[in-house]
Amino acid sequence: MADLSTCVLSQEELILELFKIQAFKFGNFKLKSGIFSPAYFDLRVIVSYPELLPSVTGYMWKIVEDKNVQFDSLCGVPYTALPLATILSVSHKKPMLIRRKESKDYGTKKIIEGHFKPGDTCLVIEDVVTSGSSILETVEELKKEGLVVTHAVVLLDRGQGGHQRLKDQGISLHHVFTLQQVVEVLHKYNKLETEMVERISLFIQKNRFDAKEISSSNGAGLPPQKQPRKMISYSERARLCSHPVTRKLLTLMEEKRTNLTVSVDLTTAAEIISMVDKVGPYVCMIKTHVDIIEDFSQDFISKLTDLAVKHNFIIFEDRKFADIGHTVMQQYSGGMYRIADWANITNAHSLPGSGVIQGLKQIGLPKGRGCLLIAEMSSSGNLCSGDYTKETVKIAEGNRDFVIGFVCQSAISDDPEFLHITPGVQLSSGQDQMGQNYVTPREVILNHKSDIIIVGRGIIKAEDPVIAAKAYMEAGYSAYMERMS
Ligand code: 5IU
């Protein structure tokens, strides 16, 4: 029988082996907390690789010895850590306790199985730690039975604040690896691209579970990321989002206290520039349709981009790309408009499938641009509903590096990273002669849980566009404040 108490592999070899068996995965994964992560660890698979188990538990034991942790028994957090706890128990002759996930509804109804005395010390064993919640759940059950828990050992600490959170609860957490170390080793052996290493570092930085936030922000003991999009303030979301355009937009929305986008559907450069200069102070975004401008020129673009700096807004070209990847690449980068050179955001129909995003992304990503997918429309009888909308959300989820949200009419995703932007807005609801449907800013932001209202004719055709812009800005932002309260 193999010696279960010694490490067979070096730490680097163990990381490479765990990568080989796909216990470490890299891409885009939804975590238990609801947030998306570029790295995912599924250590459940290690039970299929008995040759690796002695190294895993060997390093866990080494940490316990190095730190001189004393304890009477050990207990694994169900379920992945159970085999690890069993091996440690057998190879080091330490009694083990089992925590049930739910008490049996017959017999003794015990949550903790095994023999122990109140006051015994227990070491908790876990595979991966993110926020520390799973360890704390087990600790709580052990403490209810009178056991004393002051230490936990884990194979991998994701480095996202779990250590501090456990420390605040009187538990010292000891790890074999951190996520950062794993990533560095895999990079060293050419298993991970530099770009992915950077993405993961950024993710760790931005997704730290602050112990104080966890206990105070939502009372439920949940990390703030677990809250749905509609409950999180614009500025808080700016902190959670990784796309630079989303961050900039959400930040300026809170600073300028506006969630208004004006759709400047006018047909000469001079009219548009004059209108943008007037309404600029009240908007977070200006939306254009450059293909309706009679006298389009690069001079128009330089004036528009100057105004974007002067009034601090984002430029959204409502181009609605809807062709195959190769064609949209050319449409986005070239022609007389060269949209990718100046529009922070553009949008696309999901009709052609994800190829449209692949094409746009090739041009837009290096320039730091973002794209909205059209998931729903405001016009009567449109076909963007049901499964079409659901599939659109899926395409967005698979392309978060470029897709930053949706043009939509309802709350279609709870993810804080996805902006919801809604056209078809006027101060009173109704319809135009061609089937455009209007709802009020309050309805859109408060009831449909959208983030941003788009208003065209309600402002640009108003007698005084400045007064109208102020009224829409006030209506939209007060609905947001009401939603937050
Ligand atoms: N727009 C819509 N509905 C949609 C999408 C885009 O109205 O579903 I996608 C655009 C069209 C127009 C602006 O440029 O938003 C709305 O203008 P009015 O507020 O003037 O209707």
Automatic annotation (TrEMBL):
The active site is at 318 (for ompdecase activity), 320 (for ompdecase activity), 323 (for ompdecase activity). Gene3D superfamilies: 3.40.50.2020, Aldolase class I. Keywords: Decarboxylase, Glycosyltransferase, Lyase, Multifunctional enzyme, Pyrimidine biosynthesis, Transferase. Residues 259-472 form the Orotidine 5'-phosphate decarboxylase domain. Substrate binds at residues 265, 287, 378, 436, 456-457. It comes from the Eukaryota. It holds the Pfam family OMPdecase. Pathway: Pyrimidine metabolism; UMP biosynthesis via de novo pathway; UMP from orotate: step 1/2; Pyrimidine metabolism; UMP biosynthesis via de novo pathway; UMP from orotate: step 2/2. GO terms for molecular function: orotate phosphoribosyltransferase activity; orotidine-5'-phosphate decarboxylase activity. Homodimer; dimerization is required for enzymatic activity. Bifunctional enzyme catalyzing the last two steps of de novo pyrimidine biosynthesis, orotate phosphoribosyltransferase (OPRT), which converts orotate to orotidine-5'-monophosphate (OMP), and orotidine-5'-monophosphate decarboxylase (ODC), the terminal enzymatic reaction that decarboxylates OMP to uridine monophosphate (UMP). This is Uridine 5'-monophosphate synthase.
